[in-house]
Amino acid sequence: MSSSELLGPLGVERDGLGIKGYLSMRDEGVTYHRMKRFYCRCVGVNFSRFASRDAASAMIAALFSAEVQKVESWDGKGLWHTYRHSFKLSLTSGVVFNVDADSEEDKRQWIEYIETALTGTEAAVEKWNAHASVSPNIMELSPGGLVFAEKKCSPPKFKNDTSCCHPGCHVRFDSTGKRQHHCRNCGGSVCSDHSSRFAMVRHFHINHAVRLCMGCYRVQRFVLWLEMLLQRLSISQTEEEGVTKPALSKADEEEVEALFAIFGDDAFGISDVIQVLHLHRHGCDEAYAYAVNKLLELSASNLADFEFFCLRFSTCG
């Protein structure tokens, strides 16, 4: 019995953001080895690969992510193996994956979704270019999403401080025996207790997860959700079925309902939403999405405060 049969029916799923499911893949080329099987998600043209199906519940947990440039046919022929449900993914980073789906139906759904996303993105980029020009120094627009960072920025130089840069942490690297790590986004020196999270920093054109300090990790999760919301909106008008609400557990539903009640207060401001984002950073993606959406709504009437927030987060201070 194959491994896929032991795992049971795990076909492609569609949720409120995009498409997800198992794909077998490897870099373009012919080798003797079989493809490796990964759990993948695609939100708009943002394609992500995860260590497991459970890890894919949080987009920021992706081990690899890049924007899809095009999807093509592939005959599925390797040196020793032939793949029956094959196609090819070309990414804007220059990486090309030979891909094999679990079934012909899964293959059809993946290709159909990606082609729809590519069509929707073309229209979205035209609309968002005008918004990106408002803050040209901190806002970078790519087909897959919005990035708050200085344009043409390069990875930071490591600071090699004698103590951890995390607020309130007094660990010193020269006396406690704690190992010094460095945040790949701000370059700060940070101890192991406050550098255990990994995420991608796309504004440095890094497509794999790297070590971040706690502050930069929260920033990247927020920016990632801006990208996800932008992508979802960009293709929703091109889908016949519209937006499908994701299935939530009872605990997730209670969390979302609690946020709805809080956000209904007219006195709820930008600083309050930022606090909610911090408190729900370990919560379900759906709750985090509502918080990000609320922040975007408030930015329309509080643009000065929102720009200050973005500038602060772009420097990850």
Automatic annotation (TrEMBL):
Keyword Secreted: no
SUPFAM superfamilies associated with the record: FYVE/PHD zinc finger, PH domain-like
Occurrences of domain PH (ranges): 16-119
Chain ranges of the FYVE-type domain: 169-221
Domain of life: Eukaryota
Family matches, as InterPro entries: PH-like_dom_sf, PH_domain, Znf_FYVE, Znf_FYVE-rel, Znf_FYVE_PHD, Znf_RING/FYVE/PHD
Listed Gene3D superfamilies: Pleckstrin-homology domain (PH domain)/Phosphotyrosine-binding domain (PTB), Zinc/RING finger domain, C3HC4 (zinc finger)
Gene Ontology molecular function, alphabetical: phosphatidylinositol-3-phosphate binding; ubiquitin binding; zinc ion binding
Pfam families to which the protein is assigned, alphabetical: FYVE
Keywords: Metal-binding, Zinc, Zinc-finger
Gene Ontology, cellular component aspect: ESCRT-0 complex
GO biological process: protein targeting to vacuole; protein transport to vacuole involved in ubiquitin-dependent protein catabolic process via the multivesicular body sorting pathway
Protein name, UniProt field: FYVE zinc finger domain-containing protein
